[in-house]
Structure formats: C-alpha cells, structure tokens
Write a structure and sequence with these properties.
The chain is built from 9 helices and 14 strands. It is an alpha+beta fold and 362 residues long. β11 and β12 form a beta hairpin. α5 packs across α6. The chain is globular and about 60 Å long.
Length: 362
C-alpha cells in the first residue's frame, strides 16, 4: 500500500498535489537559543504561528530537479541559498561570509541591512547580487541538514521543506552582537522575532500561549535535549556552550538514516481522545520505492483546530503506543495493519477534516 493511498479516504484515488520546495533554518544564537518568528494573521499558511525563518525556494536561488524527480527532495545548494535568503528577508540576520576574510561573518550596519532587505523585498535587486555588492558570500556551507518534511498526500497545499541547523558564532568571538539581533520584516510576513531557549518555546506551546505546528515542536524537542539554557544564561561558559553544540552535531549524525537524511511525512497512527498520535516513519508519496525514510522510533501527539493551529503537542516513543511484548518484526506488522485499517475506520473522515484544517502547514 502506498502512502498516497493511506492518506486518502476510501474512493477513487488521485495523484497528490505537487509539494512546493521550501527551506527553513533552526538558527542557534551565541547563547544557544533558537530563533522563532510569529506569522501575520493574514498569512495563507501558519497564520499567527511561531515558525523558523524560511520559505519558498525562488528561481534566483538556483536550479532544481523536475517536479516528479525524487532528487527534488534532497539537500542541495539551491535549498541552502533559499534558506539563507529567507532568513535575511524575514529576520534581518545575514548569514554571509566576508569576501576578504572568509573566516568571519560579513559585518554590516543596521541601516545597511535594513536598506538591503527593503531593496530585496521590493525586487529592486536580487539577494545574491546584493550580498556580492556588500563584499560578501552567502554562507551556505555552514548549514547542517536536519530532516526534510513532506506534507501528507491528502492535503491540497503541500510543501517539501528542507530543515537546517546554523550555529551563529559564540559570544566570545569578535563579532558585534548587533548582527545577531533579529527584527520583524515590518509586518510583511512576520510581526515578532525572538531568540529563546528551546525548552522555553516548548513550554509556551504546551501552555497554549503560542502556536507551534508538529514539525517545529518535534525539532525543538530534539534540540532541547542538548541546548540547555537554564538560570542565568550569561553565566554559561564558552566551553559549556561549545560542548552542547558539539553534542547536538554528533546526534545529527546518528540514526538510520542519520537525521540529516530523514524525510518525514506524518500520518495518523491512532486517536487518543481528541488528539491524533502521528507516525513519523513515512517519507511521503514522492519517495515511495526509494530508500528514504523518516523516524521509526518516535511519534507526536497533536490536536488540530483548523485555522487556529494545533495544541496538546507531545513527543514520545512509538513503542509506548503500540501493544506491549512485540518484537521488532511484530511491531512493524502492527504498524502496517493500522495503516491498512485506516481505509475503513469510522473516524477516517474526522481525521481527514482535522488534517485539512491544520496539517497543510506541516
């Protein structure tokens, strides 16, 4: 059974909508905090939600494989350029190296960066041309791939989003901290931009004081295990901060496949009250028959509220929501049986309405 068949209710099947290429960055501050931006209310996706800086890949970012080519869903310089460009457009933080001294980030004044953002937003210049005119080179080589997410097949508005990690220089390094202060884009797409510890973002989401969608919540949960900013963040030593970063980057290399290669297309494994428990092992319909796969060990809980986003988010182990006492082969058989049963489950239509209401933002 294909993932496109799993993700639709009974009836004639049709090809899933094309997944639009996009990219986002988990931007890590000099004190190991994570940048999130709050989307404007009028946004067509993620309205009022807190998101990582990122967005659609533009033609100026570079070439991409054809739409039906599986290579479209792989890390590439084009995705990296789009991620760096969107980060600058949305937050004002420029991830570019100095052409004269490539070992350091390009240092521009706030006024220079603001005028550049305005020129790029108004299409008076392209991002890469502007960076070159300032004596810089977009720093795409310092991005670490950190999962790809494919919107489920039954959703009419779909994305193929490459996620990255980027670590800003630690505070002891000779880089003016003003370069790392995010600002909104004046309400074009975002109204707020702020660095906070990953654990703080998770706490706010669990208290329903902010809106996070499953991909953001899941990745923040992973990062929070390593980047622990507790108490007085000014008291954290450079050695501690660097040790946390090293541990996170080592974690990214682990897994089968490694986190930099995982592709995740969430699917409803079961219901628990008003919440869906979603499996994360499926790579999505575009990658059926390939060796790509997601995370077979974890699941995520979420209650979708249509245009109001999601709540009740929690990450847990898949073994804890499947029957006890099964070996690996039996556990996989159980998962496959649940996927098949969904075709005729009474709650299928309820699940699909929930997905259409909220999970188009995955």
């Amino acid at each position: 059974m294909t993932s496109s068949q799993r993700e639709t209710s009974p009836g004639p099947s049709k090809p899933p909508a094309i997944a639009s290429p996009s990219a986002s960055i988990l931007l890590i501050s000099p004190s190991n905090e994570i940048l999130l931006l709050r989307r404007v209310k009028k946004s067509s996706a993620f309205a009022l939600a807190h998101v990582f800086p990122g967005g659609h890949i533009d033609a100026e970012d570079g070439p991409l494989p054809p739409q039906r080519d599986v290579r479209l869903h792989e890390d590439s310089p084009t995705y990296r350029m789009g991620a760096v460009r969107e980060c600058f457009e949305e937050s004002g933080i420029l991830l570019a190296r100095s052409h004269e001294t490539p070992s350091t980030l390009l240092q521009l004044s706030e006024g220079e960066r603001d005028s550049g953002r305005q020129a790029i937003h108004s299409k008076k210049t392209g991002f890469q041309d502007w960076v070159r005119s300032q004596g810089g080179i977009p720093d795409i080589d310092s991005l670490y791939p950190f999962t790809r997410w494919l919107t489920p097949a039954n959703i009419p508005k779909r994305y193929s989003t490459q996620m990255y990690l980027y670590l800003l220089p630690l505070a002891h390094q000779d880089v003016p901290q003003m370069l790392h202060i995010p600002t909104s884009d004046g309400g074009i797409e975002h109204t707020e931009a702020e660095f906070l510890p990953a654990e703080e973002w998770l706490s706010r989401a669990q208290a329903d004081s902010i809106i996070l969608f499953p991909p953001q919540f899941f990745l923040l949960s992973l990062v929070a295990d390593f980047l622990k900013v507790t108490g007085d963040k000014e008291a954290l030593t450079t050695e501690t901060l660097q040790s946390q970063r090293d541990a996170l980057l080592e974690f990214v290399k682990t897994g089968n496949p490694p986190w930099g290669e995982k592709c995740i297309s969430p699917w409803p494994l079961k219901k628990e009250g008003k919440r869906l428990i979603m499996g994360l092992d499926d790579p999505g319909p575009e990658l059926e028959g390939t060796r790509r796969k997601g995370d077979s060990e974890r699941v995520i809980w979420a209650q979708f509220k249509g245009n109001e986003g999601s709540s009740g988010l929690k990450v847990g182990w898949r073994k804890d929501v499947t029957p006890k006492g099964l070996n690996d082969e039996e556990n996989q058989e159980y998962i496959e049986s649940r996927k098949k049963e969904r075709e005729n489950d009474d709650h299928d239509k309820t699940v699909e309405r929930a997905l259409r209401g909220g999970k188009e933002n995955l």
